[in-house]
Amino acid sequence: MGNQEQFILKGPIKGMGNLYRCSNSGNYFMHDGTDETPCCKCGFTQSEIDIMPFDATFFTKLRKEEL
Ligand SMILES: [Zn+2]
């Protein structure tokens, strides 16, 4: 339950946007806002963050439900 909590990863530079992942391509990208589509999402569980192929501590981690 608690470990299914969703987080947003906000870029450290103003205007950089939030981290998204496209499930079709597997690519990560930055985008404004928190809108999601069936393929591109910005809500991540801690398990998903742990396996990101870069240092996710670069981002500010916010609880998605608080946004
Ligand atoms: Zn996509």
Overview of the molecule:
By secondary structure, the protein is mostly beta strands. The chain has one domain. Helix content is 7%, strand content 28%. It has one helix and five strands. A three-stranded antiparallel β-sheet has the order 3-2-4, with no helix packed on it. The protein is globular. It starts with 6 loop residues before the first strand and ends with a strand. The model has no long low-confidence stretch (mean pLDDT 93). Bound molecules: zinc ion. The site of zinc ion has 4 residues, from loops.
Rg to the nearest angstrom?
Answer: 11 Å
Mean pLDDT: 93
Question: How much of the residues is beta strand, in percent?
Answer: 25-35%
Parts with pLDDT < 50 across at least 5 consecutive residues: none
Q: What class, by secondary structure content?
A: mainly beta
Side by side, the strands of the main sheet go 3-2-4
- The number of domains: 1
How many DSSP H or I helices? Answer: 1
Question: What is the end-to-end distance?
Answer: 19 Å
Q: State the shape.
A: globular
Give helix and strand order, one letter per element, not per position: EEEEHE
| Total E-strand runs | 5
Bound molecules: zinc ion
User: Helix coverage percent of residues?
Assistant: under 10%
Major beta sheet summary:
3 strands, antiparallel
